Amino acid sequence: xxxxxxxxxxxxxxxxxxxxxxxxxxxxxxxxxxxxxxxxxxxxxxxxxxxxxxxxxxxxxxxxxxxxxxxxxxxxxxxxxxxxxxxxxxxxxxxxxxxxxxxxxxxxxxxxxxxxxxxxxxxxxxxxxxxxxxxxxxxxxxxxxxxxxxxxxxxxxxxxxxxxxxxxxxxxxxxxxxxxxxxxxxxxxxxxxxxxxxxxxxxxxxxxxxxxxxxxxxxxx
Length: 221
Prior knowledge:
Layout: H1 2-31, H2 38-45, H3 49-53, H4 59-82, H5 88-105, H6 107-114, H7 126-131, H8 144-147, H9 152-159, H10 161-165, H11 171-193, H12 201-220
């Protein structure tokens, strides 16, 4: 009986947290991230602000989890991109290409999830996927650990694993390459957000991929 009561409480908690996450996502979609407030979220979810703090430590957690709702388009699209790969290196480039296409199309969302200082930031995405487990259904098994990582440099390092195993790059250089690729993307995304670049989404993706490919070429030489 006690076990059943505990399970019921956990189910209820996830349900309430989902209400808050969906309400936050709606505000982001309709008004933008900068317009998100605790009061707006609570009102839209049908609870008071005090209740919200029973489930989330910080507004940043809600912004993070709500932003992940929009990242689902990327996770859904990723298997289609990498299906074209003929080897691990091509697969790695296509992972980045998919990420760039989606992140430059929704720069504020991806900046919020992977770059911005949101205060008390969740360390793992596993909590989010407890709320929305079906979001990872189409992702290949070997990439699921990558999807659960919020640090984009470490995420990139995971994506490089097959390239290391098959000799495309040296393991001793993998961390540096992963960090470089993350910094390339972050720099171009920041310019994109701050209107310091006139590039279209496609042009921003092509520029990022050119730099990423170039660093691999330098590694091989």
